[in-house]
Amino acid sequence: MTIRAVLFDFSGTLYRLEKDGPWLADLVDGEDLVGEHEVELVRRLTAPVGPLDGLPDHLQDAWARRDLDPAVHREVHLAMFDRVGLPAHTAEAFYARLVDPGNWRPYPDAVQALRTVRDAGIRSGIISNIPWDIRTALKRDDALELVDDLALSYVEGRIKPDPELFRLACRRLGVAPEEALMIGDSVTADGGAAEVGSRVAFVEPLPTAQRPTALLDALAAHGVR
User: Fold this and answer.
1) Which of 46, 53, 57, 201 has its CA 20 to 30 A from that of 217?
2) Who wins on pLDDT, 102 or 29?
């Protein structure tokens, strides 16, 4: 069936949480929370689904629901930071960096991929488990005008892989799920699109400098050039 819409994930697919310089070294004293350890902490905090190691059982439910409610997202992150020994003021500053659109970078081919879809006469949408408005980042990179619709978990009250979230995104784009291609980085979360009949392509959530053409390659593999 002809592809009439392409759905993109945001984190790890179109954009990645990255910043120049360290995340914590200018905020804390102590070698145990900087360098490779802080990189691993950021990686764990941005994993799309699943429990978080080191978080007590009574907070795991809040962790699972974090992308449905910005307040819950903040509270459960601060609880995690407290467990790894961050002072309260440092935890607040670190959290602010995680949700700062300025620290989210587009992959080298992200805007070009969106433009390729638009130029092919195909509708596009972003479907993301996220607790903040990504439009600031998209607008900064002249990408917002290339996207027809956003289905964000904290707005819609659903998180991937909930099949209804994919159905909703397709409905708003005016296509049947079978006419959509979902591109994401998580087999568990983004792979849920297959349950409603959509085609699915996966990319690796590598550092942006290490993944120059994966989105364009995924589109080309499905005949979108």
Assistant:
1) 46
2) 102
